[in-house]
Amino acid sequence: MELQQSSLYISYIEKLGWHTSEIDGSTIIFRYFPIYGALAKLQRPTRLPSPDTLNKLLREKRIRRITVEPDAVVSQTAFDEWRKKIPSVGGNPFLPTKTILVDLTATEDEIFNRFSEAKRRAVRRAEKHGVIVRESANINELIAIKSKSAGLFGSITTYGIIDLWSIFSQKHASILLAQHGGVLLIFWEDTSYYWIAGATHQGKKLFTPTLLVWEALKLSKKRGMKQFDFVGVWDERNPKQFHEWKGFTKFKEGFGGTPRYYPVAG
């Protein structure tokens, strides 16, 4: 089960004011808007619900539009055929359609040696600069760093993070902080999610983001996780979507992971 279908994530979504409904083993989330009606999301189901059952639910809940983002185990062909039977399905994806996964079952040395030469060098430079990474239970420290690094969009990028932390901490989440940088990790089943990260200009000069990823990988492995999910990169199948992600996509590609593709709406 992917994180978006987990009980804790559903609790988080409900805390943000969304409604939920079960259908064929998955959870749909939806929200009502004045005049327009309701918009819904079905995120990362491992199997697609019955079209008849879904269409009936959409009518009952007065949902005008639903965005469906299947798990990677659903084939593109199956998704394309299924979509034809759901008149209300459509819209741009809310979740990334491609991510990068790092295998954590290897040894630490093997994981590190799979980094690009530039990333290995950046880790050593950060350590030489005296950058120290520590675990923290103070989500406000991370929010302050993220807000500063995001500038005018700081409040948008950190929306809901306090609620997320209150539900997942500390059994299912961890905060790593360093000089001018920080990362929030979410743990679910055997996967560690690189949920939110930020670094100031000074932190980037010290190579803090790279060291944070390395420490996040090691911590995730110690927590018993089998894979590390970078939670989204730019998808060449849809180059106009999230095109602003090309910069940090290159950053994430340097850690030796493999891509995972999700079905996309054609």
The helicity comes to 25-40%
State the end-to-end distance. 25 Å
Tell me the β content.
15-25%
List low-pLDDT spans: none
Largest sheet data: 7 strands, mixed
Q: What is the CATH-assigned architecture of the largest domain? A: 3-Layer(aba) Sandwich
Please tell me the overall pLDDT: 94
Protein name: BioF2-like acetyltransferase domain-containing protein
Organism: Candidatus Gottesmanbacteria bacterium RIFCSPHIGHO2_01_FULL_46_14
GO molecular function: aminoacyltransferase activity
Keywords: Acyltransferase, Cell shape, Cell wall biogenesis/degradation, Peptidoglycan synthesis, Transferase
TL;DR?
With 266 residues, the protein is an alpha+beta fold. It is built from eleven helices and eleven strands.
Write a structural description.
The chain has 266 residues and is an alpha+beta fold. It has 2 domains: 3-83, no CATH class; 98-261, 3-Layer(aba) Sandwich (Aminopeptidase). The protein is 36% helix and 25% strand. The protein contains 11 helices and 11 strands. Strand 7 (173-178) and strand 8 form a beta hairpin. InterPro entries: Acyl_CoA_acyltransferase, FEMABX, PG_Glycine_Bridge_Synth.
Topology of this protein?
Elements: H1 7-15, E1 19-23, E2 26-33, E3 37-43, H2 51-60, E4 63-69, H3 76-83, E5 98-103, H4 108-113, H5 117-128, E6 134-136, H6 139-150, H7 154-157, H8 161-168, E7 173-178, E8 181-188, E9 191-199, H9 201-205, H10 208-222, E10 227-229, H11 246-253, E11 258-261
Parallel strand pairs: 3-4, 9-10
Antiparallel strand pairs: 1-2, 2-3, 5-10, 5-11, 6-7, 7-8, 8-9
GO molecular function, one term: aminoacyltransferase activity
Protein name: BioF2-like acetyltransferase domain-containing protein
Keywords: Acyltransferase, Cell shape, Cell wall biogenesis/degradation, Peptidoglycan synthesis, Transferase
